[in-house]
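Per your request, structure below.
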């Protein structure tokens, strides 16, 4: 590249070799459960591998130069782990996500609290549902929502989603008072907490109804016997 006579010419380069079965194994491992049966387009570059579903990028993997190396993406394994929560804590994808800083101490603290409150299986399932929020929300907003929900003791995925949306929309909120030793834990009304469940938030944001109440006057006709006179008794 430093030789002037090489200017304007093309040179072939390689960053390693991968067999077709190796490519298939990488795609099967990285694309997730839902994308395995779709018709996809794969572009293999010198430094990475990009998979397209139409015009959308569905997977982007770094080209690994070492033999036998693997780079897992935790997001691609969530559907399978949601059905088998016991495999989550020991998953290689989780360990690599921790090393890459994608699974933060905030995630760990919220997971521990949720498992203590709801049980290990239910707490892990709630955490995976929180991780699935990252598919349509920014990672920083989800982490901020986790921190706010953990401070308020709101250990459900709905509460984290609501807090993350508040952060994304720039809403300001007051952190509830933390209980200290010797003081009783106050209710949310007493501490003016800001965390609410997503179902309550949706109900409070419904548009007021303007349609009149339905009438059952027409159905009253079904209770009257046709052809009965005013003085006729029942059964005559």
């Amino acid at each position: 590249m430093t030789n002037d006579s090489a200017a304007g010419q093309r040179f072939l380069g390689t960053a390693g070799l991968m067999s077709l079965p190796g490519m298939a194994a990488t795609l099967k491992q990285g694309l997730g459960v839902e994308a395995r049966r779709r018709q996809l387009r794969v572009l293999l570059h010198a430094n990475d591998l990009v998979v397209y579903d139409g015009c959308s990028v569905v997977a982007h993997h770094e080209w690994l130069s070492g033999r036998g190396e693997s780079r897992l993406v935790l997001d691609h394994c969530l559907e399978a782990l949601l059905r088998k929560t016991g495999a989550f804590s020991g998953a290689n994808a989780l360990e690599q996500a921790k090393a890459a800083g994608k699974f933060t101490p905030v995630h760990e603290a919220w997971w521990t609290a949720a498992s203590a409150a709801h049980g290990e299986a239910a707490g892990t399932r709630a955490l995976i549902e929180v991780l699935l929020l990252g598919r349509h929300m920014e990672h920083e907003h989800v982490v901020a929502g986790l921190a706010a929900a953990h401070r308020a003791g709101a250990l459900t995925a709905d509460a984290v989603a609501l807090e993350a949306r508040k952060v994304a929309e720039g809403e300001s909120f007051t952190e509830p008072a933390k209980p200290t030793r010797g003081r009783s834990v106050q209710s949310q009304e007493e501490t003016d907490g800001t965390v609410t469940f997503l179902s309550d938030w949706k109900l409070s944001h419904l548009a007021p109804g303007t349609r009149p109440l339905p009438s059952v006057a027409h159905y009253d006709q079904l209770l009257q016997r046709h052809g009965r006179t005013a003085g006729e008794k029942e059964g005559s």
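The radius of gyration is 29 Å.

Regards,
D.
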